[in-house]
UniProtKB/TrEMBL annotation, chain A:
It comes from the Eukaryota. The keyword Membrane applies. Keywords: Membrane, mRNA transport, Nuclear pore complex, Nucleus, Protein transport, Translocation, Transport. One of its GO terms (molecular function) is structural constituent of nuclear pore. It is found in: Nucleus, Nuclear pore complex. PANTHER family: FROUNT PROTEIN-RELATED, NUCLEAR PORE COMPLEX PROTEIN NUP85. The keyword Protein transport applies. It holds the Pfam family Nucleopor_Nup85. One of its GO terms (cellular component) is nuclear pore outer ring. This is Nuclear pore complex protein Nup85.
UniProtKB/TrEMBL annotation, chain B:
PANTHER family: NUCLEOPORIN NUP43. It holds the Pfam family WD40. WD repeats lie at residues 255-297. It is found in: Nucleus. It comes from Oryzias sinensis (Chinese medaka). Keywords: Nucleus, Repeat, WD repeat. This is Nucleoporin 43. One of its GO terms (cellular component) is nuclear pore outer ring. Transmembrane segments: none annotated.
Length: 625, 376
């Protein structure tokens, strides 16, 4: 919450950012002073938590792995893979929980709830256990999320006399409620040794507990056979109760009633059960272990209404929706209850891969999975560092992912060249040429601003941006005219095929080549190149004077370098140049001195050219005898 | 690949470096440093993979890196090198160069020296892109096109090279090797230049010239630890090139290593028939070549120094003209083996370091991988 200073008479203005809002105090009337502060309201604080970042990174890895599962396998082979992926996700959540637990972070409770829901979804939807194994999985689910039983048991066992501990019977009852009968028997054994007088009834209870049948999914026994066996056992326990066999020991009688699944007894122990879903599972265990998935919701509804005392929490309604196999309701409720899209996005994606979501087209054309993934990834993109993860998520949203990525990737702040290179690699791999061009232009402009022409040129070459390359080449040439030397020579020397990107760039490259040839004293080739630059119209007209001036030393050499024909061409170029210069265009702002210099240059050139011409004609006309 | 463990660390890692171990103790390295990038608050951290007798940690199996200490760092960590066993130097994207000291007893890091604007433009910050140290000298290079030499104990820069020569291109990385401080420098343009600097009465003379040029920007370079003329480079096109500096011109061998930029290349410091490369495409490759020499590798080249690490100087005694398998060229392709060292679908691997049998690398997926049983 943001508190404004002196809120009376003040207004609040805001501006949308990417994933956040800037809020500031203002007065909509013009007068008056406002507060100088701007507040930033971020909608998702979770992504900035360092421990949750591990969750995002690890789950990204699992997500990418999931997308690349081969499509051609038949679905019954894929189910164990999906279950193991689901378990991977859950173990990542658990790892985060443990770390948060150590740092006493309140987010732990949210993660606990998330893992609970995910586990249930895995049992009901992904694993889709049939009757018989369904209850076993539900038992596992409950056991996993009720850790205090083990703590209490540890306390009891470590005490001097476990059987006399005040929590002793609580532990035994809890074990039985969770179906952990072997451990219950072990505990009971301790009491039995203490009270040898009651040995008989303890033995009877032990007998009952040991004979309780549990369905073995991998075994040869069919469900019906198991049912029959279970009913026999149930009747035996009932007989014991009717016979008042346990009347002498009140605790054992309670145990017996629990074994029969007596609702009132179970309700009496609601403290030990803790939650309505534990109550549900325990009741199913002792009343109806062969419950079918389709019957589950009926029992869930009934048990929920008998159990609740307090107002329904979001978690309860989500779990209820799960028991009713209403996947969409689960996702919807979770989206509302949680402030981060992580959970719903990943769960929906996994369920979609299991082909459990009907293609439920939303208004704007994409399906639910894609919508959630896009929301999650867009949230990631607002983070200064996690944006890289988001790219993969967009890649796997077939309909709108690319558009989203195109829009978002341009807004990643490019602080260093290395980051720009990585962003560019992402764009180039996906053939996003518009974005490539715009990123390269940003980097090139930055380089230009810092007078690093070579770097700017290489960025524009990478973007294949001809217009910008032309601009930078102009700068190079201007620099040359001003300073007399080139910067970044090695780049220009080795442009290779990139030289053809723009005319000006080609000229730059060739001009530099001329200089190199001149430096290596390969005058004839240099001369030829120089001439071709003008005659082939590669050189811009504005530069011709410089080129002709460069030709001067070649003309002044003792040895004849330009042939007569070449000299004629040079003269032609000079005439073209002077005639265009003489046209009274906007040259009126040229000072007198500049005009003088120009005239002198032209004079010198004419003189040199005519002298060269003379020598060339003589040389060519001479016949060697 | 079974020996490699991922540790998620909530920061994108740009550099990982083993803390140098004393050669005489024949230990495997246990402590490494990492630098982060692209965070609002970047950090330099020290980790340990040794057994913790004193901390009584039950969780995390043996070899799981545990963080010992960290220190905030302004700007992305663009390079990180150890000066000696206690001091490390970092190059920052703000243009700063900082020397940190790690105190192993108290597990803290303190800043020894900080040169805030080692590299800068007139109106902006210029990232310092790479550095190399040979104690006590530190040579850094930055995007502004200058090479600056610092001394660890002095306040200001000892020497600035760069603007004097108009031929200087924005260099991006260099590594200094051997007594004659040799730079192999490449820039993001198609350029690779090398200069020989004879160390003369404590003063460094520089003379830089181009040896060879390559058609794509280069990002990393490393020299063979024993045979100084062999250089391996990697760049934007992901190709691994091995060059012979004496010949220049074209690379001796050109191998398609990665499908994206190669960020680091490293010869194994004691067993140079092995080479490691890591890349933007998320793979880390281990290259192994069969050596033609019959002499066992520990007899090749001299190693009288007491510290082994990648930036350290080694004396010039071991400069024997042995033919190395890296110079086989194309005919040697048959004797080159490559193995992937990381599980597939990792994000870009930004950095790696290897000493002995221990390999550490850091990724953009905010994970560190440590392998203690690299087959070298």
């Amino acid at each position: 919450a943001i508190h404004l200073q002196e809120p009376e008479g003040k207004h609040m203005g805001f501006a949308w950012g990417q994933g956040n809002i800037f809020v500031y105090e203002t007065l909509f009337k013009a007068t008056g002073s406002g507060s100088p502060f701007i507040h930033e309201v971020r909608k998702d604080e979770d992504i900035y938590s360092p421990i949750l970042r591990k969750l995002f990174n690890e789950s990204h890895h699992i997500f990418v792995g999931l997308q690349t599962i081969r499509e051609d396998l038949p679905s019954k082979n894929k189910k164990p893979q999906f279950v193991s992926i689901s378990k991977n996700y859950r173990s990542v959540i658990r790892a985060c929980m443990e770390e948060l637990h150590i740092s006493l972070n309140p987010t732990v409770s949210i993660l606990l709830a998330i893992e609970l829901i995910w586990n249930l979804c895995e049992v009901l939807f992904i694993d889709a256990a049939p009757a018989g194994s369904l209850l076993l999985h539900l038992l596992d689910w409950v056991r996993l999320h009720k850790a205090d039983v083990d703590e209490k048991a540890r306390d009891v066992l470590q005490s001097d006399s476990p059987a006399e501990h005040r929590d002793y019977w609580d532990v035994v009852v809890s074990y039985v409620l969770q179906g952990r009968l072997d451990e219950a028997r072990q505990m009971l054994g301790k009491k039995a040794t203490l009270t040898p007088a009651a040995n008989n009834i303890f033995k009877m209870m032990d007998n009952l507990l040991s004979k309780m049948p549990f369905y073995n999914p991998g075994g040869t026994q069919t469900l019906t056979e198991f049912d029959v066996k279970w009913r026999h056992w149930h009747e035996e326990v009932d007989r014991c109760l009717q016979d008042n066999s346990f009347a002498s020991n009140q605790h054992l009688e309670v145990l017996c009633k629990i074994l029969l699944g007596d609702e009132d007894t179970l309700l009496e122990h609601k403290d030990l059960l803790g939650t309505w879903y534990h109550f549900l599972v325990s009741r199913l265990l002792f009343c109806h272990p062969t419950v079918k998935p389709t019957e589950l919701h009926y029992y869930a509804q009934v048990n929920y209404s008998t159990k609740t005392l307090s107002a329904p929490e979001p978690l309860d309604s989500i779990l209820l929706a799960a028991f009713e196999f209403d996947i969409h309701q689960v996702i919807k409720d979770c989206s509302i209850a949680l402030n981060n899209w992580w959970f719903v996005a990943h769960l929906t994606d996994l369920l979609d891969h299991c082909k459990l979501l009907q293609s439920h087209n939303l208004h704007f054309g994409s399906n639910l999975r894609e919508f959630l993934l896009l929301e999650y990834a867009s949230g990631l993109f607002t983070h200064h560092s996690l944006w890289q993860l988001a790219v993969d998520y967009f890649d796997h949203c077939l309909e709108f992912g690319r558009v989203y990525l195109e829009l978002q990737i341009e807004r990643v702040p490019l602080d260093t060249e290395r980051k720009a290179l990585k962003v560019l690699r992402i764009c180039e791999q996906r053939q996003m040429s518009e974005q490539v061009r715009s990123i390269c232009k940003i980097m090139a402009m930055r380089a230009l601003r810092n007078n690093r022409l070579g770097s700017a040129l290489s960025w524009s070459i990478r973007a294949k941006d001809a217009a910008f390359a032309t601009l930078i080449s102009e700068r190079f040439l201007q620099d040359y005219c001003a300073k007399g030397t080139f910067s970044d020579l090695d780049l220009i020397d080795n442009l290779g095929p990139a030289m053809l990107l723009s005319d000006r760039l080609t000229f730059l490259g060739k001009y530099r080549e001329f200089h190199k040839l001149y430096g290596e004293k390969r005058f004839k080739e240099a001369a030829k190149l120089l001439l071709s630059l003008m005659t082939a119209k590669i050189a811009p007209r504005s530069f011709w004077m410089t080129l002709l001036t460069d030709a001067l030393p070649l003309l002044e050499q003792k040895e004849v370098i330009f042939s007569a024909d070449q000299t004629y061409e040079l003269m032609f170029c000079l005439e073209e140049l002077t005639s265009s210069l003489n046209t009274p265009s906007s040259d009126s702002d040229k000072s007198m001195q500049e005009e003088d210099v120009e005239l002198t240059k032209v004079e010198l050139l004419r003189l040199a050219l005519s002298r060269n011409l003379a020598m060339a004609i003589v040389k060519e006309g001479t016949v060697e005898t | 690949m079974e020996n490699i463990n991922a540790k998620y660390v909530s920061q994108k890692i740009s550099k990982t470096r083993w803390c140098p171990v004393s050669y005489s103790s024949l230990q495997q390295p246990e402590v490494f440093a990492t630098g982060s990038w692209d965070n609002e608050d970047n950090k330099v951290s020290i980790w340990s993979i040794g057994n913790h007798n004193n901390s009584g940690l039950e969780d995390g199996f043996e070899g799981d890196p545990q963080i010992l200490c960290e220190h905030k760092h302004g700007g992305d960590v663009l390079d990180l090198q150890f000066l000696d066993q206690e001091r490390m130097v970092s190059a920052s994207s703000t243009g700063a160069v900082t020397i940190f000291r790690y105190h192993p007893n108290t597990h803290t890091i303190s800043v020894l020296q900080h040169w805030a604007r080692a590299h800068s433009y007139p109106c902006d910050n210029a990232p310092c892109t790479a550095l190399v140290c040979s104690s006590p000298e530190i040579v850094t290079v930055g995007e502004d096109g200058r090479i600056v030499v610092f001394r660890a104990d002095q306040e200001g820069a000892v020497r600035v090279i760069g603007e004097m020569r108009t031929r200087m291109l924005p260099p991006h990385k260099e590594s200094s090797l051997k007594l004659s401080v040799v730079f192999v420098r490449e820039c993001r343009q198609q350029h690779n230049s090398r200069g020989d600097l004879p160390k003369d009465h404590g003063a460094l003379k520089f003379d830089l010239f181009i040896i060879f040029l390559y058609r794509a920007p280069l990002h990393c370079v490393d020299r063979h630890p024993n045979q100084q003329h062999i250089v391996a480079t990697g760049g934007q096109d992901g190709m691994l090139c091995v060059w012979d500096v004496r010949q220049g011109g074209t690379p001796i061998s050109l191998m398609e290593a990665h499908s994206a930029e190669m960020w680091e290349v490293r010869f194994h410091p004691t067993n140079p028939d092995h080479l490691f490369t890591c890349s933007e495409d998320g793979s880390l490759l281990h290259w192994e070549t069969a050596s033609h020499s019959e002499m066992p590798s520990f007899l090749q080249g001299g190693r009288n120094s007491s510290v082994i690490s990648h930036g350290a100087l080694t004396p010039a005694g071991g400069n024997r003209p042995l033919s190395s398998a890296w110079l086989c060229g194309d005919s040697g392709k048959g004797c080159l083996e490559t193995t992937h060292m990381l599980p597939s679908q990792t994000m870009s691997v930004n950095s790696l370091d290897i000493i002995g049998q221990c390999l550490v690398c850091g990724t953009d997926g905010e994970a560190i991988f440590v392998n203690r049983h690299v087959p070298v």
